[in-house]
What does this fold into?
Amino acid sequence: DIQMTQSPSTLSASVGDRVTITCRASQSIYSWLAWYQQKPGKAPKVLIYKASNLERGVPSRFSGSGAGTDFTLTISSLQPDDFATYYCQQYRTYPVSFGQGTKLEI
Amino acid sequence: EVQLVESGGGLVQPGGSLRLSCAASGFTFSNYAMSWVRQAPGKGLEWVSAISGSGGRTYYTDSVKGRFTISRDNSKSTLFLQMNSLRAEDTAIYFCAKDTYPTGAGAFDFWGQGTMVTVSS
It folds into this structure.
Protein backbone atom coordinates (compact mmCIF):
# COMPACT_ATOMS: atom_id res chain seq x y z
CA ASP A 1 0.00 0.00 0.00
CA ILE A 2 1.11 3.58 -0.66
CA GLN A 3 1.66 5.76 2.41
CA MET A 4 1.22 9.52 2.23
CA THR A 5 3.11 11.79 4.63
CA GLN A 6 2.25 15.46 4.97
CA SER A 7 4.27 18.17 6.64
CA PRO A 8 3.87 20.14 8.71
CA SER A 9 0.98 18.78 10.79
CA THR A 10 0.16 22.29 11.96
CA LEU A 11 1.05 25.58 10.36
CA SER A 12 0.57 29.01 11.91
CA ALA A 13 0.34 31.89 9.49
CA SER A 14 -1.20 35.30 8.95
CA VAL A 15 -3.48 36.81 6.34
CA GLY A 16 -1.40 37.72 3.30
CA ASP A 17 1.31 35.11 3.96
CA ARG A 18 2.53 32.68 1.33
CA VAL A 19 2.40 29.13 2.66
CA THR A 20 3.50 25.75 1.38
CA ILE A 21 2.37 22.31 2.48
CA THR A 22 4.37 19.25 1.48
CA CYS A 23 3.16 15.73 0.73
CA ARG A 24 5.43 12.74 0.15
CA ALA A 25 4.40 9.36 -1.21
CA SER A 26 6.12 6.11 -0.21
CA GLN A 27 6.49 5.21 -3.90
CA SER A 28 5.96 6.96 -7.19
CA ILE A 29 2.40 8.01 -7.87
CA TYR A 30 3.32 9.87 -11.06
CA SER A 31 0.93 12.86 -10.93
CA TRP A 32 -2.04 11.04 -9.43
CA LEU A 33 -2.44 13.39 -6.49
CA ALA A 34 -5.26 15.58 -5.24
CA TRP A 35 -5.45 18.24 -2.55
CA TYR A 36 -8.55 18.86 -0.43
CA GLN A 37 -9.62 21.56 1.98
CA GLN A 38 -11.85 20.70 4.94
CA LYS A 39 -13.47 23.10 7.37
CA PRO A 40 -14.90 21.98 10.74
CA GLY A 41 -18.18 20.13 10.39
CA LYS A 42 -18.03 20.13 6.59
CA ALA A 43 -17.16 17.67 3.87
CA PRO A 44 -13.80 17.97 2.12
CA LYS A 45 -13.62 20.04 -1.05
CA VAL A 46 -11.22 19.27 -3.89
CA LEU A 47 -8.80 22.06 -4.74
CA ILE A 48 -6.23 20.46 -7.03
CA TYR A 49 -6.25 17.25 -9.07
CA LYS A 50 -3.54 15.50 -11.04
CA ALA A 51 -0.96 17.33 -8.93
CA SER A 52 -1.27 20.75 -10.52
CA ASN A 53 -4.72 21.18 -12.07
CA LEU A 54 -6.93 23.73 -10.36
CA GLU A 55 -10.50 22.55 -9.82
CA ARG A 56 -13.12 24.78 -11.41
CA GLY A 57 -14.15 27.59 -9.09
CA VAL A 58 -11.10 27.37 -6.84
CA PRO A 59 -9.26 30.68 -6.44
CA SER A 60 -6.02 31.04 -8.37
CA ARG A 61 -4.04 31.74 -5.18
CA PHE A 62 -4.02 27.94 -4.75
CA SER A 63 -1.48 26.00 -6.79
CA GLY A 64 -0.02 22.52 -6.78
CA SER A 65 3.23 21.11 -8.07
CA GLY A 66 5.32 17.98 -8.05
CA ALA A 67 5.48 14.52 -9.55
CA GLY A 68 6.73 11.10 -8.55
CA THR A 69 6.93 11.13 -4.77
CA ASP A 70 7.14 14.79 -3.75
CA PHE A 71 4.34 17.31 -4.00
CA THR A 72 3.48 20.76 -2.70
CA LEU A 73 0.37 22.85 -2.22
CA THR A 74 1.02 26.58 -2.18
CA ILE A 75 -1.34 29.36 -1.17
CA SER A 76 0.14 32.56 -2.53
CA SER A 77 -1.60 35.08 -0.25
CA LEU A 78 -3.64 33.68 2.62
CA GLN A 79 -7.18 34.88 2.99
CA PRO A 80 -9.32 34.53 6.15
CA ASP A 81 -11.41 31.84 4.43
CA ASP A 82 -8.31 29.66 3.89
CA PHE A 83 -7.82 28.70 7.54
CA ALA A 84 -8.78 25.03 7.45
CA THR A 85 -7.27 21.55 7.32
CA TYR A 86 -5.68 20.35 4.08
CA TYR A 87 -5.24 16.77 2.92
CA CYS A 88 -3.35 15.23 0.04
CA GLN A 89 -4.62 12.01 -1.54
CA GLN A 90 -2.97 9.57 -3.91
CA TYR A 91 -5.15 7.85 -6.47
CA ARG A 92 -2.59 5.96 -8.50
CA THR A 93 -4.00 2.69 -7.22
CA TYR A 94 -6.31 1.14 -4.66
CA PRO A 95 -6.29 1.40 -1.76
CA VAL A 96 -6.30 5.14 -2.36
CA SER A 97 -4.83 6.93 0.63
CA PHE A 98 -4.77 10.32 2.32
CA GLY A 99 -2.09 12.20 4.15
CA GLN A 100 -2.68 12.80 7.85
CA GLY A 101 -3.67 16.43 7.26
CA THR A 102 -2.20 19.88 7.83
CA LYS A 103 -4.12 22.27 10.04
CA LEU A 104 -3.59 25.85 8.94
CA GLU A 105 -4.10 28.18 11.88
CA ILE A 106 -4.12 31.91 12.29
CA GLU B 1 -26.29 20.51 -9.43
CA VAL B 2 -24.61 17.41 -8.05
CA GLN B 3 -26.01 16.27 -4.73
CA LEU B 4 -25.04 13.35 -2.54
CA VAL B 5 -27.19 12.69 0.52
CA GLU B 6 -26.18 10.00 3.00
CA SER B 7 -28.49 8.33 5.48
CA GLY B 8 -28.62 5.30 7.74
CA GLY B 9 -26.12 6.22 10.42
CA GLY B 10 -26.80 5.85 14.12
CA LEU B 11 -25.82 4.20 17.36
CA VAL B 12 -25.17 0.46 17.23
CA GLN B 13 -23.70 -2.03 19.68
CA PRO B 14 -20.40 -3.77 18.97
CA GLY B 15 -21.03 -6.73 16.71
CA GLY B 16 -24.11 -5.12 15.23
CA SER B 17 -24.96 -4.07 11.68
CA LEU B 18 -25.93 -0.93 9.82
CA ARG B 19 -26.70 -0.15 6.19
CA LEU B 20 -25.73 3.25 4.88
CA SER B 21 -27.28 4.77 1.78
CA CYS B 22 -26.20 7.64 -0.44
CA ALA B 23 -28.77 9.12 -2.82
CA ALA B 24 -27.19 10.81 -5.81
CA SER B 25 -28.60 13.37 -8.22
CA GLY B 26 -27.41 15.89 -10.77
CA PHE B 27 -25.19 13.54 -12.80
CA THR B 28 -25.36 10.23 -14.66
CA PHE B 29 -24.75 7.96 -11.67
CA SER B 30 -23.77 4.85 -13.60
CA ASN B 31 -20.95 6.71 -15.37
CA TYR B 32 -18.86 7.15 -12.24
CA ALA B 33 -17.26 5.06 -9.57
CA MET B 34 -18.24 5.89 -6.01
CA SER B 35 -16.46 5.58 -2.68
CA TRP B 36 -17.09 5.67 1.02
CA VAL B 37 -14.59 7.69 3.08
CA ARG B 38 -14.74 7.92 6.86
CA GLN B 39 -13.42 10.27 9.49
CA ALA B 40 -13.17 9.25 13.13
CA PRO B 41 -13.84 12.05 15.64
CA GLY B 42 -10.98 14.53 15.55
CA LYS B 43 -9.01 12.42 13.08
CA GLY B 44 -8.09 12.47 9.40
CA LEU B 45 -9.74 11.03 6.32
CA GLU B 46 -9.68 7.29 5.69
CA TRP B 47 -10.84 5.71 2.44
CA VAL B 48 -13.05 2.68 3.15
CA SER B 49 -14.42 1.20 -0.06
CA ALA B 50 -15.10 1.88 -3.73
CA ILE B 51 -17.27 0.47 -6.49
CA SER B 52 -16.98 0.96 -10.24
CA GLY B 53 -19.72 2.65 -12.21
CA SER B 54 -21.11 -0.63 -13.48
CA GLY B 55 -20.86 -2.21 -10.05
CA GLY B 56 -18.68 -4.95 -11.41
CA ARG B 57 -15.59 -4.12 -9.37
CA THR B 58 -15.34 -3.43 -5.67
CA TYR B 59 -12.43 -2.44 -3.46
CA TYR B 60 -11.95 -2.33 0.32
CA THR B 61 -9.43 -1.19 2.85
CA ASP B 62 -7.98 -4.14 4.76
CA SER B 63 -9.63 -3.29 8.08
CA VAL B 64 -13.15 -3.74 6.70
CA LYS B 65 -12.67 -6.66 4.31
CA GLY B 66 -15.08 -9.44 5.11
CA ARG B 67 -17.24 -7.17 7.27
CA PHE B 68 -18.39 -4.38 4.92
CA THR B 69 -20.03 -4.73 1.50
CA ILE B 70 -20.38 -1.90 -0.97
CA SER B 71 -23.08 -2.00 -3.64
CA ARG B 72 -25.06 0.29 -5.88
CA ASP B 73 -28.43 0.47 -7.59
CA ASN B 74 -27.90 2.44 -10.78
CA SER B 75 -31.62 2.44 -11.55
CA LYS B 76 -32.19 4.41 -8.34
CA SER B 77 -28.87 6.35 -8.33
CA THR B 78 -28.11 5.04 -4.87
CA LEU B 79 -24.94 3.80 -3.23
CA PHE B 80 -24.94 1.47 -0.23
CA LEU B 81 -22.56 0.28 2.44
CA GLN B 82 -23.60 -2.77 4.44
CA MET B 83 -21.59 -2.82 7.64
CA ASN B 84 -21.55 -6.00 9.74
CA SER B 85 -19.60 -7.06 12.83
CA LEU B 86 -19.12 -3.43 13.76
CA ARG B 87 -16.33 -2.48 16.13
CA ALA B 88 -15.69 0.59 18.27
CA GLU B 89 -12.96 1.63 15.84
CA ASP B 90 -15.56 1.93 13.06
CA THR B 91 -17.03 4.94 14.85
CA ALA B 92 -16.79 7.82 12.38
CA ILE B 93 -18.58 10.13 10.02
CA TYR B 94 -19.07 8.25 6.77
CA PHE B 95 -18.98 10.32 3.58
CA CYS B 96 -19.94 9.13 0.14
CA ALA B 97 -17.81 10.61 -2.59
CA LYS B 98 -18.08 10.73 -6.38
CA ASP B 99 -15.05 9.62 -8.33
CA THR B 100 -13.91 11.44 -11.45
CA TYR B 101 -13.63 8.20 -13.44
CA PRO B 102 -16.04 5.32 -14.19
CA THR B 103 -13.50 2.68 -13.28
CA GLY B 104 -12.42 4.34 -10.05
CA ALA B 105 -9.05 5.33 -8.58
CA GLY B 106 -9.66 8.99 -9.27
CA ALA B 107 -9.95 12.17 -7.26
CA PHE B 108 -13.24 12.84 -5.47
CA ASP B 109 -14.93 15.85 -6.97
CA PHE B 110 -18.15 15.80 -4.94
CA TRP B 111 -18.88 14.69 -1.39
CA GLY B 112 -21.99 14.21 0.68
CA GLN B 113 -22.46 15.86 4.05
CA GLY B 114 -21.75 12.63 5.91
CA THR B 115 -23.64 10.36 8.30
CA MET B 116 -22.43 9.55 11.80
CA VAL B 117 -21.92 5.95 12.88
CA THR B 118 -21.31 5.32 16.58
CA VAL B 119 -20.41 1.83 17.77
CA SER B 120 -20.78 1.61 21.52
CA SER B 121 -22.45 -0.48 24.19
